[in-house]
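dumping these here so i dont lose them again. two proteins, back to back, each one seq then structure tokens. dont judge the mess
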Amino acid sequence: MNQPLVTIVTPSFNQGRFIRATIESVLAQDYGAIEYIIMDGGSTDETAAVVREYSSRVTFISERDRGQSHAINKGFQQARGEVLAWINSDDILLDGAVRKAIDALGDDSRVGAVYGEGYLMDESGNLTARFPYTQPFDLWRLAHLSDYILQQAVFFRRDAVAEVGWLREDLHYTMDWDLLIRIGKRHPLRRLPEYLGCIRDYGDTKTSLGGMQRVTEIRRLLREHTGLSVPPGWILYGVGAWSEMWCRRIQRAMPRGFGWAGEVLQIGLLGLGSAVVGRVVNLNGGWHSDGWVGETMEYWLPHGTGPLVLEGAMPPSPWLQGQRAKISSNGTELGEFRLNPGEFRLAANVPPPPPGEPVRLRLDCARTFVPGYSWENNLDVRTLAFLLYKLNFLGFDYFPPGKDPEFPRPPGARGKRSPAQNS
């Protein structure tokens, strides 16, 4: 009886062939307090007939809208739930997803949203692979580089959504990414070691057909959040679209009989694109996944004020003797610390950042070295300063970017039917 109400919204338009699986994945949840709203954009296919079969358990509103973001906003604004989520009409929730999310949210109002692992599935509903990008919460990476959070596995605290504002209706491909960044600037996002949702991956999805229009929107979004004219995420997502565009142009421009030359150019172009992506995807703000910090480190933390604690170690390297680290937040220096060999624990008081803005942490180190060949005989040309094991701020621990504890990844996903498809 004390369960918080969860409202799930499904935006829909002419997805009648998939929507039954979506509906059944929601109604099959082992959590009793669910309000389910389907916001349909006036479908002309079998959508209405399918939904009528579930009319006693579903609120169905079919009327013209201004796109997916507008439809979701309309659902959220009439929702009664304390927790909000949306699941598209060609995607599904996995068994137990809602209960696991509510357990993770608990009574901690500081957490703005929780997210979990997920699967990719094909057009027929067969699970094909784990969604490969999910990683622990890292606000710097989320705002600068990539949307590593699967929207189908996210549950939002309603108060956090209301605080930052609803989905932006001028965004058509990145509205979930934008909402996650805006909430993440003010509240921690908690990752769960659970599989919560599936995204249907096929050629006719809006994301697949987005092309350069989607890339342009990504650049606009990331420029607004970072202030960078060339955000690294724009390059990361743009390389594929640019390569595809230029490959088509090369094919059209090649004279008859010189198709082999066009193929050589395309292979070279794709190779260059892969190299660029490889460099960009490893950007980390100066805090590496093995814990090493570079000469300069930038890291974002959700809005707050109070003690910031850094735990790490100073290796006994002669190149690093006399190491000093200067810590600043949003341009205000918090202190300069001498790091002696051995483990350390530093504390600095963070002043209030600008309203609604994150804590933009920066570390500048006086001494560095380049390892060269490591014990694994691999060339390591990074400029390194010291080891940072963990940050703690407002009771939350933050670990090196990409450091991934062993979350459950059940084998045998390829070709397996999703739970909703089996029902």
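---- next one ----
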Amino acid sequence: MQFYKVTLELARTKEFPQGSARHGYHLVVPLDESGQLDVESWRENKKKCTVHRFWEGEDDQHGHLIHTRHRTWAFSYAPGEDDDEPLFHLESHRLRPGEYISIREHNGETLPFLVTEVIPL
């Protein structure tokens, strides 16, 4: 099992046509050889699977990667579902530089993010 620090940066949106390195996430997650989430390692090491949300103009948030009762993956910053940020099809995405992933922010808006860095820990 190998853990990685993965950086996601806001991809092109109407508000940020060039994307933004000042809006995104740092994840610590176990990945397999193909760059996909290693679910078994996540199960065994849930507390190590963290997220740090950085968003210019807002306080940073720190939380964990969770698997919800709705069978989806999400970032959670506090107990309960009010602040959860679902990730679309994380189980089938490769977290490698150049890949994209969609995240529904806790305000309900779905935004695209670009994987910009994957560093072994």
